[in-house]
Fold these 3 entries.
Entry 1:
Amino acid sequence: MTAADDLVNHPSHYASGGLECIDAIQGSMSKLEFEGYLKGNLIKYVWRYRNKGGVQDLQKANWYLDRLIKSNQPPND
């Protein structure tokens, strides 16, 4: 599977002009707002996984959880 085909980590339909939508969203929000966005998406994918996307939705939830964890880690010095 190529990066362009990765529907969990880098879906090609979320990138335009070399910029992923998630990065544009982050740039438009405060840190607290962005963390709320990540948390909301995490909840959404866990909530619906049995009725819609199955394991792929759980993988997407995990992606949002990883991003939320990273946003709360202290910067590397």
Entry 2:
Amino acid sequence: MNRKKKVVTTLKKKAKKANAKLAPNSNKPRYISKAEREKMALEAEATQSEEKIQEESSAEQQQATAE
């Protein structure tokens, strides 16, 4: 009885580990380092400033054509 129980528990452990590997990971977001966060913020800032410049230049062109 004891030997049978031991075999069954080891097989259950192996099956549990195999299922855990196949299961999808948690919904926890990927870790982003502090340096990468700063880099992303600078890139976002740069794109926003470029968009503002483009908007201002298009507005000036529209005013020039209106006059």
Entry 3:
Amino acid sequence: MSGKNRADIHVGAKVKIVLKKDQPTGKLTEGIVSRILTNSSHHPHGIKVMLEDGRVGRVQEIEKESANGTTGE
């Protein structure tokens, strides 16, 4: 699932983001969302979030959650 729609992202979700410094290469960083920073419902480059470790970037992928709450790939 892409990270362009705010409604698809929630605090505690496991996501892959691109950090500002990694935008030229597209390198993804995985983490858990602690805050959603974009206020608009949609952003073409991905919703900006803060991860639990404090890193900030735009969501590129959202990990799917199974029925028992664990993530699956």
